[in-house]
């Protein structure tokens, strides 16, 4: 090809591209940093998969724009009469994308599939004793104890067609090999899969027979995973994609300064915190303290809390986009304790005197572990915190690493203090109490992310009550007590709520949900 | 000749086994695949069961034996991340990387050899000095910076070329090619230039150095004295002798281009093997990483073999030695 013909064809190519863009204004392209690992809704319990598949599959209930639960494949639900659990009344006249009808058998089948050993989402069904099909459009979920949260906890439980799964040998989710459901879908949701090329491109088209009211105007949606943040930003600014989630904080100014683009900012439901090795008898990484663990003294933990200056972290690292956190869920989440909403003030003098009181007038050194690829600015945050700790005499030896190394280290107890972010899957305070504050107990599946082994008998005693109590005021009273105890004992140092930053072209209207899920059915391209 | 090839093949098998062993022993330090495969709410015992099922608790030797045994039987296993067959995954990504690498190498040759010759013939010219300086700057800048600069100039500011992906592709008997559409070429241009810049400098400087060396040799001087036309001297005699070492390097470069396309593929979201490898590291996708490294080793071995054969074809002296 000579230079001339190449130039000409490049020009023709550009012209074609421009006219094509004009003709189909409702085609929509978006990018994110992670490709969903599978199209199977029960194989992996991770946000990229569940977020993506919520466009294709549906559950009994779903979350609306404000994160509240509303009916989806179930039109309504009520507590069971005479026993613990919930009765769901299913929507009639719903069909799957292959045309087969939806009924209670599909719910039953999906429950069995999602609670099987091969499923990664089976923890959602831990409280379920039995599921009964009452009639074609009524299903009972019987639980071991009263469970007011159950409908909330299954918002991402997606329903598959029984006949389709059986015909294609996908009765069970495939976790270590591929099966038909890994690459193919058959849901009831607003969109269906047109093509799938893992890691490269996935195309969705609207489901013409969807039961719901169509609010979007998308005729074809193309998803591209773009791992490199600079590449993603360039793809947006060059106009090749319409929307990207998330973008790095430092790129916000660049997007805002250009015409035709906008930044969507919100707060994720994720609280970032420091955790302690409560049950460690001695520090592992100290150069000057041996045989004892100063963090077992509440005064030392309180001193660490008072040493952190959230306002400076916000100003320097987050450009004013974070809010300090007082507890392990952000305000607005159910169970948030209004009564305990003040966080320890930044007070280095008090921190120093607390340390002196505890017998460390000159402070001591310890190991601080942080991930460097998990949370926004995680490594920078830990560097900042380490210097704030040092100012009061807590000399943190910081070590950081990628998250694939990080969790195994925490599980192996290789830390003195560590960084953790937590987003409550159920959007309720019960979730962090169960995972982070309960005494670790693998049999009861409690405290599985409580790496430091924090333990308080009263908290353990209150949890079952919180899980069962139906009366909101009585329940909140118990939650308030747990929050008060863990604040007083400085079980963790809650730092702030992580910001959520998306960017899009100006002509795209979309909804940013606090769980970082992206719903195509709320997209309009103008 | 046949003996020579056979000897090289046997050596190659040992190289591949060594690479597989090294790669496999490194994976123990990459991190835990299970925590990347499961959600936060997965019970510890479910994680443990999965670990057992995948054979991650087995001793290193057993795991390595299983890995190589399966590979030799043509079973490349399943990806921990996508659950696809690893053989299919790699095979579907090979065309993208090979096309990118080939075009990058062609760019480096088409530009590098003539400029190398030119700068050798006019070593003190102003143009030569500026070319040398420019290429020096070119090699000093890391590949990803060049890539991002190109993206922002031609993609974002001017809007001429796409910033990511392969553009339009055509299926030709299982080979997904971007060489037959305008859209594909537009997408290919920036990554190929990015990947080719470093090689270009290398090729140019090598050709220049070799050419200058040859021009100083006696047979060229005698040729000049005898009045052989300069054109014939430069291009027929000098250049063909220059090419022997250049072909070695080009061959090795091609292996290098394929192996080091990781950075370029990441910057341009180019769906080749390098990007797949990078994603696999992120997810501790051990089966994919293992197969990738073995495939790359195979490429190097293959390229080296071809280079050796080319030697024989180009340099008559080697042929005579082999026959005697």
UniProtKB/TrEMBL annotation, chain A:
Per the UniProt entry, what species is this protein from, by scientific name? Cognatishimia activa
Keywords annotated in UniProt? Signal, Transport
Q: Which InterPro entries match?
A: Peptide/Ni-bd, SBP_5, SBP_5_dom
Q: Which family does it belong to?
A: Belongs to the bacterial solute-binding protein 5 family.
The terms describing its cellular component in GO are: ATP-binding cassette (ABC) transporter complex; outer membrane-bounded periplasmic space
Among the GO biological process terms of this entry, one is: peptide transport
Q: Please list which residues make up the signal peptide.
A: 1-25
**CDD domains attached here?**
PBP2_NikA_DppA_OppA_like_2
PANTHER family, sorted: OLIGOPEPTIDE-BINDING PROTEIN APPA (PTHR30290:SF9), PERIPLASMIC BINDING COMPONENT OF ABC TRANSPORTER (PTHR30290)
- Compartments, as annotated in UniProt: Periplasm
Asked if the record carries the keyword Transport, the reply is: yes
Gene3D superfamilies assigned to the protein according to its UniProt record, in alphabetical order: Dipeptide-binding Protein, Domain 3, Periplasmic binding protein-like II
GO MF term set: peptide transmembrane transporter activity
Residue ranges occupied by any Solute-binding protein family domain in the UniProt entry: 69-440
**Designated name of the protein:** ABC transporter substrate-binding protein
Q: Which domain of life is it from?
A: Bacteria
The answer to whether UniProt assigns keyword Coiled coil to this entry is no
From TrEMBL, chain B:
InterPro entries with a match to the protein in the record: BPD_transp_1_N, MetI-like, MetI-like_sf
Keyword Ligase included in the entry's annotation: no
GO CC field:
plasma membrane
Where is it chiefly localized? Answer: membrane
Which PROSITE patterns does the record match to this protein? Answer: ABC_TM1
* Top-level taxon of the source organism: Bacteria
- A single BP term in Gene Ontology: transmembrane transport
Q: Which UniProt keywords apply?
A: Cell membrane, Membrane, Transmembrane, Transmembrane helix, Transport
Record membrane topology: Multi-pass membrane protein
ABC transmembrane type-1 domain mapped to chain residues: 94-311
Q: Where are the transmembrane segments?
A: 12-30, 100-121, 133-156, 185-207, 246-270, 290-314
Tell me the compartments it is located in.
Answer: Cell membrane
Q: What name does UniProt use for this protein?
A: ABC transporter permease
Q: Which organism is it from?
A: Cognatishimia activa
């Amino acid at each position: 090809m000579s230079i001339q013909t190449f130039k000409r064809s490049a020009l023709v190519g550009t012209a074609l591209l421009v006219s094509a863009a004009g003709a189909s204004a409702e085609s929509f392209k978006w990018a994110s940093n992670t490709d969903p690992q599978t199209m199977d809704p029960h194989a992996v319990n991770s946000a990229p998969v569940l977020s993506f598949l919520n466009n294709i599959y549906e559950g009994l209930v779903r979350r609306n724009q404000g994160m509240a639960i509303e009916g989806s494949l179930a039109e309504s639900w009520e507590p069971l009469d005479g026993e613990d659990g919930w009765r769901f009344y299913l929507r009639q006249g719903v069909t799957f994308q292959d045309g087969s009808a939806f009924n209670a058998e599909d719910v039953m089948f999906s429950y069995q599939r999602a609670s099987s050993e091969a499923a990664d989402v089976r923890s959602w069904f831990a409280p379920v004793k039995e599921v009964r099909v009452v009639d074609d459009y009524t299903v009972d979920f019987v639980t071991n104890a009263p469970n007011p949260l159950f409908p909330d906890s299954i918002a991402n439980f997606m329903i598959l067609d029984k006949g389709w799964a059986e015909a294609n040998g996908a009765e069970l989710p495939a976790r270590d090999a591929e099966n038909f459901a890994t690459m193919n879908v058959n849901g009831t949701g607003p969109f269906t899969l047109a093509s799938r090329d893992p890691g490269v491109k996935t195309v969705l088209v609207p489901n013409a027979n969807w039961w719901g009211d169509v609010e979007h105007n998308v005729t074809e949606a193309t998803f591209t995973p773009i791992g490199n943040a600079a590449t993603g930003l360039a793809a947006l600014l060059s106009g090749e994609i319409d929307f990207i989630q998330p973008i790095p904080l430092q790129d916000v100014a660049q997007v805002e300064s250009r015409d035709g683009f906008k930044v969507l900012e919100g707060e994720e439901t994720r609280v970032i915190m420091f955790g302690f090795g409560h049950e460690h008898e001695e520090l592992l990484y100290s150069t000057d303290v041996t045989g004892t663990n100063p963090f077992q003294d509440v005064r030392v933990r309180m001193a660490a809390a008072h040493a952190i200056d959230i306002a400076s972290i916000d100003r320097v690292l987050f450009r004013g986009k974070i809010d300090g956190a007082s507890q392990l869920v952000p305000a607005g989440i159910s169970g948030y304790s209004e009564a305990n909403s003040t966080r320890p003030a930044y007070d280095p003098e008090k921190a120093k005197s607390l340390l002196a009181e505890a017998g460390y007038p000159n402070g001591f050194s310890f190991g601080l572990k942080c991930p460097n690829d998990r949370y926004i600015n995680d490594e920078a945050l830990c560097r900042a915190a380490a210097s704030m700790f040092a100012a009061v005499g807590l000399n943190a030896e910081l070590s950081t690493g990628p998250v694939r190394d990080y969790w195994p280290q925490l599980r192996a107890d290789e830390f003195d203090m560590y960084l953790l972010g937590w987003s409550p899957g159920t959007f309720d305070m019960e979730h962090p109490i169960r995972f982070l504050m309960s005494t670790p107990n693998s049999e009861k599946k409690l405290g599985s992310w409580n790496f430091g082994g924090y333990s308080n008998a009263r908290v353990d005693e209150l949890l079952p009550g919180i899980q069962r109590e139906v009366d909101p005021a009585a329940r909140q009273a118990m939650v308030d007590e747990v929050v008060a105890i863990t604040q007083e004992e400085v079980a963790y140092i809650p730092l702030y709520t992580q910001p959520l930053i998306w960017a899009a072209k100006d002509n795209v209207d979309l909804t940013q949900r606090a769980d970082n899920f992206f719903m195509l059915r709320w997209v309009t391209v103008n | 000749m046949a003996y020579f090839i056979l000897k090289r093949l046997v050596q190659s098998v040992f190289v591949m086994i060594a690479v597989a062993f090294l790669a496999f022993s490194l994976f123990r330090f990459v991190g835990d695949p299970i925590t990347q495969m499961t959600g936060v709410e997965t019970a510890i015992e479910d994680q443990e069961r999965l670990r057992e099922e995948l054979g991650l608790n087995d001793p290193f030797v057993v795991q390595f034996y299983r890995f190589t045994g399966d590979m030799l039987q043509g079973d490349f296993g399943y990806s921990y991340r996508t659950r696809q067959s690893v053989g299919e995954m790699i095979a579907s990504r090979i065309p993208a990387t090979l096309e990118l690498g080939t075009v990058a190498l062609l760019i480096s040759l088409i530009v590098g050899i003539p400029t190398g010759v030119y700068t050798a013939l006019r070593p003190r010219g102003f143009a030569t000095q500026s070319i040398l300086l420019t290429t020096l700057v070119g090699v000093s800048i890391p590949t990803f910076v060049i890539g991002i600069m190109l993206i922002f100039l031609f993609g974002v500011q001017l809007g001429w070329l796409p910033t990511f992906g392969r553009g339009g592709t055509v299926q030709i008997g299982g080979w997904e090619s971007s060489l037959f559409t305008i859209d594909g070429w537009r997408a290919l241009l920036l990554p190929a230039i990015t990947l080719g810049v470093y090689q270009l400098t290398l090729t140019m400087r090598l050709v220049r150095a070799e050419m200058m060396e040859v021009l100083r040799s006696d047979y060229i001087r005698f040729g000049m004295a005898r009045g052989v036309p300069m054109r014939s001297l430069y291009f027929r005699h000098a250049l063909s002798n220059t090419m022997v070492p250049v072909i070695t390097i080009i061959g090795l470069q091609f292996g290098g281009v394929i192996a080091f396309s990781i950075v370029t593929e990441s910057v341009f979201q180019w769906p080749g093997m390098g990007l797949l490898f990078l994603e696999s590291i992120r997810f501790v996708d051990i089966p994919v990483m293992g197969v990738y490294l073995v495939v790359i080793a195979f490429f190097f071995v293959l390229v080296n073999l071809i280079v050796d054969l080319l030697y024989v074809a180009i340099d008559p002296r080697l042929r005579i030695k082999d026959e005697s």
